Amino acid sequence: MSIVDTLSIESGLEVSLVERIIRNAPVRYKTYQIPKRSGGTRTISQPAREVKVLQRSLSEVLLRLLPVHEAAMAYRPGMSIRDNALRHAGDGPILKMDFKDFFPSIKTHDWVQYCKETGALTDPGDVRVTTLLLFQRPKGSTTLRLAIGAPSSPFVSNALLYEFDERITAAVARDHVIYTRYADDLTFSAPRTGYLVNVEKMVQTTLAGLEYPKLLINAQKTTRITRKYGRRVTGLTLTNDGGVSIGHERKRILHAQVHNATKDLLDKDQIAELKGMLGFVNSVEPQFLDVLRRRYGHSIITSIQRFELPPPTLDLLE
């Protein structure tokens, strides 16, 4: 059965409609900018609704089934930023590196080569169809690239980086270094700083030796962190007793927001945001929820956790 037929069954759309959507999929994106926490902006490209439906269908029938290396911690069922941070728990030094323009650097050639070498897809028609569905052609460009915002992009990137993850894991293990990758964030930890000396060169050599994808390291984001300066991995703080914490600043904000909630000083949107923060705490450092309960009472924490925003209503007078 062809990919088009499979997508038709999975999505419930007619074959002719699936073909029409895929034909124009590379240009059916809405692009906008969002601010980065570190400054500057990030380009987000959201696929049109019908394209997104087919991308999700393809993710279910194919992309989720592709091998993902155990060092890849993002976009995997049952894995979280906490799991990534825990791999580096302890009091050893950390080296953090970052891919430059990660998703947009992955192009159709990389997917075609991957399919050819792994046998993920063998029919040339299926390969062509999936390249149209998975990759965006930005305005003013003739090159198709992975889009930040497409639901299928994370699965494609994890699959295509299997060989990179495998080579890096094996190479650094000889020096007692632990490696994980969370999307474009590479983290290395070791018992002592000396073990990390050769890692940067090893990463660059490995990238240069790969046929696909052709990725670059953002040298400006390469950092070395020791116990003295506070070690953070994917936004979480590594404690010196081998645990993971949300960090002092987040705890300070949570104390202030829960206190404001007890005084009825938060509007509905702020309560909804606080509910999300408590959910985050529960997944990373659940014992801090007990601290909040003892400080402010079980009832206020429970009421925040159960809060639901009312559904939007239409103004019939407009």
Helix content, binned percent:
40-55%
SSE series:
HHEEHHEHHHHEEHEEEEEHHHH
Tell me the overall shape.
Answer: globular
Structural class: alpha+beta
Q: What's the mean pLDDT score?
A: 92
| Unreliable sequence segments | 313-318
Strand content: 5-15%
Report the oligomer.
single chain
Overall number of domains: 2
Ends apart, CA distance between termini: 50 Å
Radius of gyration from CA coordinates: 23 Å
Instruction: Find the count of extended strands (DSSP E, 2+ residues).
Output: 10
Give the biggest beta sheet.
Answer: 5 strands, antiparallel
Count of discrete alpha- or pi-helical segments spanning 4 or more residues = 13
3D architecture notes:
The chain is an alpha+beta fold and 318 residues long. It is built from 13 helices and ten strands. It is globular. The protein folds into two domains: 230 residues, no CATH class; 61 residues.
Write the layout of secondary structure elements.
Layout: H1 3-11, H2 15-24, E1 29-35, E2 41-47, H3 49-61, H4 81-86, E3 94-100, H5 108-118, H6 124-134, H7 153-160, H8 162-173, E4 178-182, E5 185-189, H9 199-209, E6 216-217, E7 223-225, E8 231-233, E9 236-238, E10 244-245, H10 248-262, H11 268-284, H12 287-296, H13 298-305
